[in-house]
Please model this.
Amino acid sequence: MDHSHSNDRASWLQGPPRTCSTVPSSVANPWRLILLGAPGVGKGTQASLLNKELHACHLSTGDVFRAAKSRNECDLTPAMKSALDFMRRGELVPDSTVLDMVRERGVCLRCAGGFILDGFPRTLDQAEALTELLSAEHVPLTAVINYELPVSDIVARLSGRLTCEKCKAVFHATERPPKSTGVCDICQGRLFQREDDRPESIRVRLEAYDRSTFPLIQFYKKAGLLLTVAATGSPQDICAKTLTALHAWRSRYIASA
Ligand code: AMP
Model:
């Protein structure tokens, strides 16, 4: 069954006590993945393609902040209001805010359908906190996928990116244009350019990635969980490469168990 399309990810996007429209029943070997890579390598696009193939939910911390942005100002906690200012500038939101948000959503990490984390963890402290959280819940990670792409390609991808206001689907002005300008092919929602996809914010985000997130590659390599995939080619090509790497990874793991 394809959980992805029918699942509105309400528990993740809006937080507890909201429950998802479809809660997967037990899946034999749920995939529990982290997607790493600089902003713009296409983690969000891959997460939604992988979600269709693997049925694990796409959990993006950036999507939670964007969902909060469209909420009434008075409903936002002071921490969330300040988080949105960091985000607008392209800076990382403080670890304490991100970790409170993820801990609140522990139900998504324990989900029987597994998960695909996109945009979290982004600092070593977040990665260490996640390791503790998962080990307390007895949910082991399957693998960490590291998407690699040259910086010039990253900038081109980010500056043409268009995101659906409603379902968060991602399009690109030239590479993956919607059928009708400004309108989402999937849900007919309005497409917009993220504030942090403006040139000055892109630069800040790439610097934050080099400084804070790049060290996670070493962290997960040491943990024996890292799989590197070249993020070149069409989204479908990249997804196919990822699936090949993941299935090979899992069969090696089963063979050695
Ligand atoms: P993304 O959609 O993953 O590119 O995230 C958009 C923005 O949300 C980032 O540039 C940060 O400002 C903020 N953000 C998302 N996830 C995190 C995180 N794990 N740690 C810190 N900031 C984050």
Summary: Residues 1-5 have pLDDT under 50 and may be disordered. The pocket of adenosine monophosphate is lined by residues 39, 60-62, 65, 86-87, 90-93, 98, 119-120, 122, 126, 196, 205 (CB under 6 Å).
